[in-house]
Design goal:
By secondary structure, the protein is an alpha/beta fold. It has two domains: 111 residues, Periplasmic binding protein-like II (D-Maltodextrin-Binding Protein, domain 2); 95 residues, 3-Layer(aba) Sandwich (D-Maltodextrin-Binding Protein, domain 2), CATH 3.40.190. It has seven helices and nine strands, in the order H-E-H-E-E-E-H-E-E-H-E-H-E-E-H-H. Strands 1, 2, 3, 4, 5, 6, 7, 8 and 9 form a nine-stranded mixed β-sheet that branches. Strand 1, helix 2 and strand 2 form a beta-alpha-beta unit. Helix 5 packs across helix 7. The longest helix is centred in the first third of the chain and has 28 residues. The chain is elongated. The model has no long low-confidence stretch (mean pLDDT 84).
């Protein structure tokens, strides 16, 4: 049996077909949007690391992911990712917290450094005990103990310390003071590697050792958030070979004994 649509029926079929095509397009577009990095991405890091590297990293990431809006919070304290609604924390630590998923990004080493001008004036220490005769710049709680035995003393007591013209609570200030030839500073590789390459700072070898690999840089996040395209894409981006820590690791590896 044959059917013939009325004029109203033909109009209905034409409109319905167009609406179905539009509906399919909306569904496909929505699926693509859900699987595409977009929206706000909140990242936290320490003040010194964020200041030194994250503006450049964010800029390169945004070139590839223009629909992601980045929020950066700098804080030297470990923040609760859930309470502060943070997607990713970039932290430098010897032991990452166990309640987050972690991705190790780089090794972070520390070393004593001074400017060429300071060393030309004061000479370079060859042993840690030699620091007693130098100007030492200190980050309280970070710089190792600077108490030594008196030169020529047979006693094992470590009651003598070097002159400490400046004590701060910021690696950035410590770096600035070292670059200004104010003394010897204990500084991390993520801050000093470029200055070593440029000849602005000289790493000091004392007692046969120059580099102290004590920490690592980690990306911390909740495992459930890795399913989110913006979180996954940023972490994958941090693991690529062009990141600044690849270069600082190369610089520091040349100094290891």
């Amino acid at each position: 049996r044959n059917f013939q649509l009325t004029e109203a029926g033909e109009f209905f079929v034409a409109r319905a077909s167009k609406l179905l095509e539009e509906f399919d397009d909306v569904i496909n577009s929505t699926c693509e949007y859900i699987n595409y990095p977009h929206g706000l991405l909140k990242v936290t890091s320490s003040v010194a690391f964020g200041y030194a590297h994250l503006v450049e990293i964010f800029d390169k990431y945004r070139e590839l992911n223009k629909d992601v809006e980045l929020i950066l919070e700098l804080d030297d304290h470990i923040v609760n990712l859930n309470e502060n609604d943070v997607d990713i924390a970039l932290r430098i630590t010897s032991t990452p917290p166990q309640n987050y998923a972690t991705r190790k990004l780089a090794e972070v080493s520390w070393m004593y450094c001074a400017s060429p001008a300071y060393l030309e004036k004061m000479g370079a220490p060859k042993k840690l005990d030699d620091l007693i005769n130098h100007q030492c710049l200190v980050y309280q709680g970070i710089t190792p103990s600077l108490r030594f035995s008196a030169p020529g003393s047979s006693s094992n007591s470590c009651n003598h310390r070097p002159k400490i013209p400046l004590s701060v609570n910021s690696s950035l200030l410590l770096l600035k003071a070292a670059l200004a030839s104010q003394g010897i500073a204990w500084l991390p590789s993520y801050l000093v590697s470029s200055h070593i390459e440029d000849g602005e700072l000289i790493p000091l070898t004392m007692d046969g050792k120059c580099v102290y690999p004590t920490h690592s840089l980690y990306a911390l996040y909740f495992p459930s958030k890795y399913k989110n395209p913006k979180v996954r894409s940023f972490i994958d981006f941090l693991l690529e070979d062009h990141q600044p820590w690849k270069k600082w690791e190369e610089t520091i590896n040349k100094l290891k004994f």
